[in-house]
C-alpha cells in the first residue's frame, strides 16, 4: 500500500505507526509557470500523535486520489498547499488547518517508484 507522510515540527522523531484520528484534506500544487493552482485533490488523512499526517491508498494500487497526488509530485510544483480537516467531511466553513510546503530539489521520479513511501519534513516558523 502506497502512502505519503508529512512530519510537522522542529525535530524529526521516530514516526508513530498508530493513527490517533482520521480526516480529509484538500491538496493543490502551485507551479511557477501558472497563475493559479492545480485542480484540488481530496485525500483521506490519518493523523498521528507525533505531529505527522499521512495520505494513504484506500485500496491497494487503485486509489485515483493518491495517484493524483503522485502525479502532482511528478510535475515538481514550487509549492504544495494542504488544508487538513479532522473528521470525515470538508464542508464549507468547517474549520481546517492550512499549510504550505515549499518544495526544493524534488526528484520528479519519486511518483514513479513502485510502493512509493515519502516523508516530507516542515519546520514550524
Q: Can you give a write-up of this model?
A:
With 125 residues, the protein is mainly β. The protein has one domain (3-115). 9% of the residues lie in helices and 38% in strands. Strands 6-5-2-3-4-1-7 form a seven-stranded mixed β-sheet. Strand 3 (44-48) and strand 4 (52-56) form a beta hairpin. The protein is globular, with a radius of gyration of 14 Å.
- What would you call the structural class? mainly beta
The residue fraction in helices comes out at under 10%
Uncertain regions: pLDDT < 50 for 5+ in a row?
A: 113-125
Task: Report the strand count.
Answer: 7
Distance between the termini: 32 Å
Mind telling me the C-alpha Rg? 14 Å
Task: Identify the strand order in the major beta sheet.
Answer: 6-5-2-3-4-1-7
Shape: globular
Number of domains: 1
Number of discrete helical segments: 1
The average pLDDT is 73
Summed up, what is this model?
9% of the residues lie in helices and 38% in strands. By secondary structure, it is mainly β.
